[in-house]
Amino acid sequence: MNPASRPRGVYSPVVTPFSNDLQPDHDRFLRHCRWLIEQDVGLAVFGTNSEANSLSVDEKKRLLDTLVSAGLPVERMMPGTGCSALTDSVELTRHAIASGCRHVLMLPPFYYKGVSDDGIFRSYAEIIERVGSDALRIYVYHIPQVSQVALGLPLIDRLLKAYPRIIAGVKDSGGDWDHTQAMLERFQPQGFDVFAGNETFLLATMRGGGAGCITATGNVNPAAIVDLYRDWQAADADARQQALDAIRAVFAKFPMIPALKGALGIYSQDEGWGVVRPPLVALNDEQRAALKDALANAHFAMPGIEAALA
Amino acid sequence: MNPASRPRGVYSPVVTPFSNDLQPDHDRFLRHCRWLIEQDVGLAVFGTNSEANSLSVDEKKRLLDTLVSAGLPVERMMPGTGCSALTDSVELTRHAIASGCRHVLMLPPFYYKGVSDDGIFRSYAEIIERVGSDALRIYVYHIPQVSQVALGLPLIDRLLKAYPRIIAGVKDSGGDWDHTQAMLERFQPQGFDVFAGNETFLLATMRGGGAGCITATGNVNPAAIVDLYRDWQAADADARQQALDAIRAVFAKFPMIPALKGALGIYSQDEGWGVVRPPLVALNDEQRAALKDALANAHFAMPGIEAALA
């Protein structure tokens, strides 16, 4: 792979559509992924907002197979492969590599709490050794408010020293700009790519020398987020950031994953998008109407979505 | 199954031994389970202290197969079958039922945080409907300090009303006696069996009409815990409880799972017991020596363990 294909820009943890009987809906998934790729949004499938941890390893493997078989570009995929169980993480990462995806986003194991840096290091190291591929590039996934397992700077430093090529970057979803900035200053110059965990820090991340963002709202507002990524040095960049923030704030008033799926349903005229797996709950009628109104009031649009998802 | 085989007494979340290359060690596992059964400790395999969430569904299925094939009594097993992914929980629960185990201990899905009671209810309900077995008996697993997903009284009440025979009890590992007591008063009279999450609440739970305890230290101190369960109405019950608490307190000074495995290694003279999967870390030499001294000072013994695990 040439350096030009190193991940940069905007990625989205692609929401996973389900049929009414809660099976992954491969057709809707493929159409949505194709629409994202057309707008230059990379596919961070199997992220938190993908309900990835409500899917079995086999379900994730089959969903990835669907994308690869359909010819979507593997160099624009960054599947989430970090599971609670070591052997699941190894199996899913191997499958990603065998499918041609070399970039993976990897949660630390997330059931046990209060684990040590030694234990987290050992987890990543075991996965790297067992997968045993020089092609592998791991983006570690820092989302302590959900995983409850933080990836601090000393741990990242240690991983980088042990696996300087394989440990390739981070998705920082912690919401703490100081942490993002510290990684930009300390690790980005070593070629460790820092992605903001959502677009509210996109401009700051680009100004700090980072690689882009991996954001839930990339599922619904891809074009505008990609525009800011491309034009972050433009004179009106701050105004564009504010416009992105305003749309994000609408979604943030609702449970995020049901709201993303709700918006896809509303704008594509396909109610089937609303289904979520337990333990999540779909928007109720009142929430859905409120989301619709709030997005209309914010002049939100999803150009082309109806045709793309039809 | 006759009512006499309804689970009562002392269960242990059986620690899962691993080979040096971190594979589940079926031989050591079987020997340990047999030793526990001989002392009338039930097998709550695949609990938190079993490192269950560091094992794949297939690994757990094969470990259960080993016990069942060896003829260990299925009516004394209560495998943990609650996973992060709905489909994993369904698969593992179906396998337990197909193996003849009707009692399962079930965590709620534990990746997503801040989920609603509606979502947790829907998760249990979907699993029950998909497994579709009248034989199934679910013991819900309340361990909010680890799972970060609490099972409150209104949720349990709702589950009991919807599935009065299938929702059979709880393991309460929350460490909050008020919560245990409230369940004993409100639900135990309905036949919902309350198990304390460790033996420090065993006597109080028995006095409150509960069913027993499911405890990590059952792995190492089975006989004494079973004795208190049997003789909880004896004159010296409080003194026995204090003796159990003193041993528990020694283990609680160390990371629990590595300490349990460390003690099994020390007392069985089989160092192979010390291996844990990441993200856990085995006791280091200093910790191991400190554990050995502290247990000796507490006059701790594991009669018969050397022969049993040889």
UniProtKB/TrEMBL annotation, chains A, B:
<feature type="active site" description="Schiff-base intermediate with substrate">
    <location>
        <position position="171"/>
    </location>
</feature>
<dbReference type="InterPro" id="IPR013785">
    <property type="entry name" value="Aldolase_TIM"/>
</dbReference>
<dbReference type="InterPro" id="IPR002220">
    <property type="entry name" value="DapA-like"/>
</dbReference>
<feature type="active site" description="Proton donor/acceptor">
    <location>
        <position position="141"/>
    </location>
</feature>
<keyword id="KW-0456">Lyase</keyword>
<dbReference type="Pfam" id="PF00701">
    <property type="entry name" value="DHDPS"/>
</dbReference>
<dbReference type="GO" id="GO:0008840">
    <property type="term" value="F:4-hydroxy-tetrahydrodipicolinate synthase activity"/>
</dbReference>
<feature type="binding site">
    <location>
        <position position="214"/>
    </location>
    <ligand>
        <name>pyruvate</name>
    </ligand>
</feature>
<protein>
    <submittedName>
        <fullName>Dihydrodipicolinate synthetase</fullName>
    </submittedName>
</protein>
<comment type="similarity">
    <text>Belongs to the DapA family.</text>
</comment>
